[in-house]
Design brief:
About 40% of the residues lie in helices and about 15% in strands. The structure holds zinc ion.
Length: about 280
């Protein structure tokens, strides 16, 4: 399994989105200071009006409505038990572990003492996850795994995600978590369907549209970046989701199949909406 090596300074698309987190989403945070996002490499681009940005990549399509991502989620993360003193899996440094819940999902949070973070700092991001994406938290919290683990640094990466671990640095925001969810759910699906990434590569060729510059680098990062734009459209409502389906139909079908195969989405039900999401318009 290839871990994600999402490099903070390199992933301009994610950092751009991070700068788009305006007051509506911030207001949904826990009343604690959130970790500061790293300074984006392209301040000038961030100032550009959304309508002036030509949509060459799918990330350009979602950027104008990414600022409110997750702001309407009603579920609030809660501590279930802990902390328990642990050694961090990566480097055996001292850490603490809690069990927490978000809606119907129970998961672990493991924080290295050196970060000086509290669970509330992590919850500020976690609470914005769309309902199906919370499955990631369950998978990385299975027996013997550390759940969402926060380290002071990860060798220059913003996060490392696989079905066995989800490691992040303090600056990683919800968009990083959603990107990593792409890796976690893909790897869980690949366990039972080994040609999942191969099929994704075929979908990319069929769709003839780029998701993001980072996604262009390798097929599994294309998938993770698509997981991000899908999440933003899912949160923004059925019309945005339909628009994404039309822009990238092959990836869209593949990603929904991965959501079902990994247990994130019940195949018998339509795509879950976030709590308090606007009702679908009559058709
Ligand atoms: Zn990645």
């Amino acid at each position: 399994m290839k871990p994600c090596r999402l490099l903070g300074p390199v992933v301009t698309s994610l950092l751009w989105l991070a700068t788009g987190l305006a007051s509506p989403a911030s207001a949904a945070d826990e009343p604690v200071p959130a970790p500061k996002a790293p300074k984006p490499a392209r301040d000038a681009g961030a100032e550009q009006a959304p309508e002036a940005v030509k949509i060459e990549r799918l990330v350009d399509f979602v950027r104008p409505f990414a600022a409110t991502f997750g702001a309407s989620n009603a579920d609030v993360p809660k501590l279930v038990s802990g902390p328990k003193v642990v050694a961090m899996p990566n480097d055996k440094s001292p850490g603490r572990q809690w069990v927490a819940s978000l809606g119907t999902v129970t998961f672990k949070v493991t924080i290295a003492d050196a970060t000086k973070l509290a669970p509330a700092d992590v919850f500020a991001h976690v609470r914005r996850l769309p309902v199906p994406y919370r499955r990631m938290l369950e998978i990385v919290s299975e027996d013997g795994k550390a759940g969402l683990a926060v380290y002071p640094e990860l060798g220059g990466a913003a996060a490392h995600g696989s079905q066995d671990y989800l490691n992040v640095i303090p600056q990683a925001n919800v968009f990083v978590l959603v990107h990593e969810c792409g890796h976690v759910l893909e790897q869980r699906t690949t366990r039972g369907a080994p040609k999942t990434l191969e099929a994704w590569g075929e979908a990319v060729a069929k769709d003839r549209v780029s998701v993001s510059e980072y996604g262009d680098t390798v097929v599994h990062e294309d998938l993770a970046e698509f997981a991000l734009v899908y999440a933003i459209c899912l949160d923004a409502g059925p019309a945005r989701l339909d628009d994404l389906r039309q822009r990238s139909p092959a990836r869209f079908a593949q990603w929904e199949a991965i959501l079902e195969a990994s247990g994130a989405k019940d195949p018998a039900k339509p795509t879950p909406k976030p709590p308090n999401a606007p009702k679908s318009p009559p058709r």
